[in-house]
Amino acid sequence: MKMLRVVSLRLLSAALALPLVCIPAFGQAITYTEHIAPIIYNNCTKCHRPGQVTPFTLTSYAEVAKHAPTIAAVTQSRYMPPWKAEPGWVTYRDERRLTAAQIDLIRKWVDGGMPQGDPAKDPALPTFPTDWQLGTPDLVLQMPAPFTVPADGPDIYRNFVLRTGLTSEKYIRALEIKSTAPTVMHHVLFYSDTTGDGRKLDGADGQPGFPGLGSVFTLGSSNPTTALTNALAGGLGGWVPGASPEFLPTGLAYTLPNGADLILQSHFHPSGKSEQPVLTVALYFAPKPATDIFSVQAPAFFGIQANLDIPAGKSDYMVRSSFTLPVDVDAFSVSAHAHYLGKGSRLTATLPTGEVRILLWIKDWDFSWQDTYLFKDIVSLPKNTRIDGELIYDNSTANARNPFNPPQRVKWGENSYDEMGSLILNVVPHNPSDAVSLKTAMTAYILKSAPPVGNKPLFISAGVVDAASAQGGAVTPGKVLVLYGNRLAPTGLAGPQVSNGKYASTLNGAQVTFDGVAAPLLYTTDGQVSVVAPYSLAGKTGTQVVVKNGTQTSDAVALPVAPAGPSIFSTNLTGSGQGAVLNQDLSPNSSKNPAAPGSIVVIYATGEGQTNPGGADGQRADGPVYAKPVLPVAVNIGGVPAEVLYSGAAPQLIAGVMQVNVRIPAGTPSGDQALEVVVGDTKSQAGITVAVK
């Protein structure tokens, strides 16, 4: 065991206290025709072609080369192709996501001068529909006259009544909508109306349709509960910016009752130019399904019951809501909705077994890209599964999309400059006979206002991050974490309390529990708390986290659990850049103090999972026996495997901090080299480097 020494490091102490396609063979030239065209044609040209809303076309070498630097930049940042759902949690159908290898190939092609290659090898362009994207529809309905949207003024909600003329019940597997003025479209929701009330209101003020966001929820009954239930039962999906039309999975369809009208609840946002949109809808029919489709929203009804009230300047306003499924369901799609202040959203499911699944996670919300994500395979969720919807809003000047400068207080409202928000999970009862039970429970949930948070601690799963990588996701036994939120502990910084080599699990009256087990604490403030996940999580697939601040207790927050999830501490505390690494003489590694090839370096990380001997919560590693990860540990430097001399507990540091001693491979080039720790089959975060002479 070389270089295993007792280390007292200000470097690591700072790191633990986070602040408030086809790949060419080696040497082969990367060309457009052989390597880049297939990526562009299969992932970009569908939208970047004549007649679409995109600002330029990408159908030839000349067009792609003209925009190549931009393409390289927006794919590197993953701004394009537009696909906001995070990978790695659930698989969606028709994902618009480039692989890391494809993104790197584009960058290298641009850096290499964008050679065209042999024109004869240019693949043929895909064949795209010239009319409706989903093919020939079974029925096309159109507004009888245009509706005038003025150049400016407040947002407009308008409900258009399209008479179907159908004499029998139909079942809809897809709807596709077109507008003659797409620039003023905010969103459209589809409803069926069997009451005839929509017809009575249609055109009463001289323009097609009738006004109001809530009007569709008053049709057919003077009883608000009955009217709302009828409207929700008649929901047929919707369209939002960035969404592509999709067929529902086989066997699923929305019901369009006999004689029903189709209502388009349309939200217009003036664009600075007067427009006269005409909306046309294509309907695609299917055989009768076994049961109706239900949309589980959390928070309910786009957040109207969530007491949404975002103070000016607040950059991390959090909302969460939970709904427990009363029956077994099969989920087939998921989506999210918010406006310009939206920052991120996550939908999780906690199964009765304790397993936690992330069904949708959008880290970087963008109002312009609000897809419906169809699961590649049906996701079965048993009775008593808890659905948690969580959203974060940024009402500060740091939000470039904030419509107000300076920021203003924003509450729930219909307009784009107001806010709303929900996660929507589309399901069918696994047993058709359970439809009534599901409908009854959902109606009660929709009508129940969320209780005020009051003085309770508030945090959400996306606010629990790895202390080394600063990224969220699954937690592992012994991982050092930071929780961000409100009222998590008394105001002021409370540092660790260590007695007989063990860190306390209560600081200044604050405590964090994982499935009821109190975790050791490294520090607490009112806005963040650093903890080490208990080793009792080993073998679990999910955990419920609760924060106690004095007599106040937070709601339980669900987190998935993984066997390992290594991450390397960085010196700049961001989770990227120069790693928390010591050279052989125990001086900090840096570009000014690089390590020589063949020398030994010491790496500090966390997330190695269970150890042998088993991890002791909060215990300082004082020897003489040092716990080692149960799973094998490997290290790559500059993409080359390095000899691992020791991996295990870091002497004199809390259990959960891993030290890895490795030898830098001979022949490693000088400069900042990529550093990667692998535990089992899980790799540490990208972007960490070690400086080499």
Task: Give a topology summary.
Blueprint: H1 10-16, H2 32-43, H3 61-66, H4 68-76, H5 100-111, E1 139-142, E2 156-163, E3 170-179, E4 185-193, H6 197-201, E5 210-211, H7 224-233, E6 235-239, E7 254-256, E8 261-268, E9 279-285, E10 294-298, E11 309-310, E12 317-324, E13 329-338, E14 342-350, E15 356-362, E16 372-381, E17 386-393, E18 410-411, E19 421-429, H8 435-447, E20 458-466, E21 480-486, E22 498-499, E23 502-503, E24 510-514, E25 517-518, E26 521-524, E27 528-532, E28 542-549, E29 552-553, E30 557-560, E31 567-568, E32 577-578, E33 581-582, E34 600-606, E35 611-612, E36 628-629, E37 633-637, E38 640-649, E39 657-663, E40 671-679, E41 682-683, E42 688-692
Parallel strand pairs: 32-42
Antiparallel strand pairs: 1-9, 2-5, 2-8, 3-7, 3-9, 4-6, 4-8, 10-19, 11-18, 12-17, 13-16, 13-19, 14-15, 14-17, 20-21, 21-27, 22-23, 24-25, 24-28, 26-27, 28-29, 28-30, 31-34, 33-34, 34-39, 35-36, 37-38, 37-40, 38-39, 40-41, 40-42
Helix pairs in contact: 2-5, 4-5
Q: Main β-sheet: number of strands, strand sense, barrel status?
A: 10 strands, mixed
- Kindly estimate the percentage of residues that lie in beta strands according to DSSP: 25-35%
Please report the distance between the alpha carbons of the first and last residues.
25 Å
CATH topology of the largest domain: Jelly Rolls
Count of the separate structural domains = 5
Considering DSSP H and I runs of 4 or more, what fraction of the residues is helical?
Answer: 10-25%
Number of strands: 42
Name of the top-level CATH class of the largest domain: Mainly Beta
Please tell me the overall pLDDT: 90
- Rg of Cα set: 28 Å
Q: Which outline best applies? A: globular
Q: What's the tally of helices? A: 8
Stretches where pLDDT falls below 50 for ≥5 residues? Answer: 1-26
What would you call the structural class?
A: mainly beta
